[in-house]
Prior knowledge:
Elements: H1 2-11, H2 20-47, H3 52-67, H4 75-98, H5 108-126, H6 137-158
Helix pairs in contact: 1-2, 1-3, 2-3, 2-4, 3-4, 3-5, 4-5, 5-6
Amino acid sequence: MLFVGWIGFNGGSTAAAVPEIAHIIANTVLAAGTGGAAGYLEGLRQDRIILPKKAFSGMVGGLVAVTAGCMVLTPAGALIVGALGGSAAVWFNSFLETRLKIDDAVGAVGVHGASGVVGTLAPALLSSVAHLPTGSRLDQLGVQMLAPGSTSSGHSVSGSSSSGCSAR
Length: 168
């Protein structure tokens, strides 16, 4: 249900019935698939057994990662972003639990935090330069790096959290 809902979330972000919706939905599905596969493989690497929760975390990590750039990424870019987001989610959740001894029972920090950072930075690196407001990959990457940095700083200082989606 979450997967199907995410298709509507990303596809509906255009706020109008435009042809780009097909591209957005395709990118969303591609990223979810590669995120799930990457989560499965990362989980298998970590645990030497198959745990469905790792594939599911990877799928949601892929969905989170593709959301910011679902309209500007190519299908190949969506595949890459999904795989990176899925791997990041599973790896970071394991890091939190094993190294930092923090129990995130539902894996929300890795899925939304680590995959969100991947997805925030990815459009600057993987989309066409024509889609970048700054007209330069390096300049756009600098702008994109402000969001995770400022959000992390805000969480550290205030201890609060917020959620939202990026406007396209």
